[in-house]
Design the sequence.
């Protein structure tokens, strides 16, 4: 079983955070805490979901487009 999943499982079943079985400053310990806490260890390794990424402003055809608002609905 994946170490991250083991950490997440430990939290679900109610084990305390200090119940990590891996030695300090080890990759396994960091992975276990990542699963327990539900977040990535290093902030720089976090990647947003692709749907949340804004398109490149310099992309062709995107000159003055407003990305945060949907286009207006056509009235009948």
Sequence:
């Amino acid at each position: 079983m994946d170490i991250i999943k083991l950490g997440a499982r430990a939290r679900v079943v109610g084990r305390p955070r200090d119940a990590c079985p891996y030695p300090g400053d080890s990759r396994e310990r960091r992975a276990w805490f990542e699963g327990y806490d539900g977040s990535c260890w290093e902030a720089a390794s976090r990647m947003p979901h692709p749907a949340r990424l804004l398109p490149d402003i310099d992309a062709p055809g995107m000159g003055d487009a407003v990305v945060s608002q949907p286009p207006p609905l056509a009235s009948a």
